[in-house]
Amino acid sequence: MEQTPYQIVIFGKEGCQKCHTLNQRVDTLLKKELWSDFSKRYLDVMTEAGLVEFCNTECINPQRIPALIITRYDEGTGRYERMTNERPGAADPVCRDFRLYTYLGLQTDYTSTGTITPAMITHLLKQAKEIPDGPA
Q1: How do residues 107-133 score in pLDDT, each as one tens digit?
Q2: In the chain, where are the structural domains located?
Q3: What percent of the chain is predicted at pLDDT more than 90?
Q4: Is pLDDT larger for residue 24 or for residue 93?
Q5: Which CATH architecture has domain 6-130?
Q6: What is the pLDDT of residues 70-110, one digit of tens each?
Q7: Axis crossing angle, helix 118-130 with helix 17-30, rounded to the nearest 10
Q8: pLDDT digits (tens, 9 = 90+) for 32-80
Q9: b/e per residue, 74-97, with b = 16+ CB within 10 A?
Q10: Residue of 85, 75, 97, 74 whose CA lies nearest to 127
């Protein structure tokens, strides 16, 4: 897997059309030079590895799949570490109720459109680049 400064981790499951759409949207964005410092990792929550990672994230509602979080590579640990949401609970006009509270990420809001849009993903990627390096 390509090591980039940032990694988008998508949690989904087989047969889920919204998961498929989210993957396609992220793939399309990552083809752009602007986002070349991001890579993608897809985890199926119906597999043991995907479920363990999903549970370790601790803040995604299982009924709000697909979801994604942004991680940043940490030279000290040699791993991608979750990025903290610097403004938990703050209103976000772009991501609205899709935004995660604890980490920089999104989860599907089925009370509205139920669609994570390219604008939401782009908004999150921009925010990731603005957060200074340091522990999450």
Answers
A1: 999 888 889 999 999 999 999 999 877
A2: 6-130
A3: 78
A4: 24
A5: 3-Layer(aba) Sandwich (3.40)
A6: 999 999 999 999 999 988 888 888 998 899 999 999 999 98
A7: 50
A8: 999 999 999 999 999 999 999 999 999 999 999 999 999 999 999 999 9
A9: eeeeeebebbebeeeeeebeebee
A10: 85
Q: What residues have CB less than 8 Å from 33, skipping those under 6 apart? A: none
Task: Enter the tokens of residue 61.
Answer: 């509602």
Length of the chain: 136
Q: How far apart are CA 82 and CA 73, in angstroms?
A: 9
3-state SS, the chain, equals: CCCCCEEEEEEECCCCHHHHHHHHHHHHHHCCHHHCCEEEEEEECCCHHHHHHHHHHCCCCHHHCCEEEEEEEECCCCEEEECECCCCCCCCCCCHHHECCCECEEECCCCCCCCCCHHHHHHHHHHHHHCCCCCC
C-alpha span between 68 and 18 (Å, rounded): 12
Tokens of 70: 């942004």
Tracing tokens 């006009």 back to the chain, one arrives at 93
